[in-house]
Amino acid sequence: MAADLVLDVRGVSLTLGGNHILHDLDLQVVDRKRPGTTTGQIAALLGPSGVGKTRLLRIIAGLDKPDAGSVIGHDGKPLTAGEVGVVFQHYPLLRHRTVRGNLETAGHMNGLSGKEARDKAAELLERFGLAARGNLYPVQLSGGQRQRAAIAQQLMKHKTVLLLDEPFSGLDPAALNEVIRLLVEVAHMHELNTLLIITHDIRAALVASDTAFLLGRRLDAAGKPTGPAKVQRMVDLVALGLAWQSGAEHTPEFVQLERDIKDDFRAL
Ligand SMILES: Nc1ncnc2c1ncn2[C@@H]1O[C@H](COP(=O)(O)OP(=O)(O)OP(=O)(O)O)[C@@H](O)[C@H]1O
Ligand SMILES: [Mg+2]
What we know:
268 residues; alpha/beta; Rossmann fold; three-stranded antiparallel sheet; globular; binds adenosine-5'-triphosphate; binds magnesium ion
């Protein structure tokens, strides 16, 4: 594998219950570099509902085995569960533990001592604006707060690859901007950090990411989606000059790209 890939998904195929979902799918995330800065990677995975995004995420996370293909990390070896964190579509916070308790439990499960887990939880609660909410139970949080808590929970142990399934759903505009800001901050904490974000929010995806992948199926003559899914399009926002700049979303180029991708959806 080329030295500058941090995630290399090759030839992944998946059939479930006679349903051919993914076929010979390739997806490569390049190690982004900017002189004088620590630059992680954020890739967005877009695609219509039911196309296979969550299934692909489960394969990358090592939770499901594909029928064919491989998932290789930055060191050229198969990605191991210990290197990957996942924030699922429905945030898996424990209902009977407080927010702080949830974070500390995640720390213990990842081998931190009691003090390490307490210190790390306190740091993350502060960073995620949840310090005053630490003693509440998940049910007492707003949707946005729960999302931030679920992301914080995954950061209790440093994982190079963080997969997030719909982290933007159900957020008001202010909470959405806040979650994007946090994810960008997390990505750039280490050079090899790689976030893969599944979302239906095209605009948020393009604001947050440096690369966007469009997963889709071909349409048959009658316009019906047919066959298994592949990556149909890869958008390099760095090459387009749209990554890493605040306010890029207000440029005509960004607005046009967002429109193009929406059009692409119609042909998937
Ligand atoms: N156990 C299963 N047996 C058969 N088909 C399945 C099974 N699990 C999932 N599928 C099918 O796999 C396809 C992909 O599902 P997946 O959850 O990955 O979609 P998705 O792209 O994440 O959709 P959404 O955006 O709605 O979350 C769907 O069409 C689904 O019906
Ligand atoms: Mg899904």
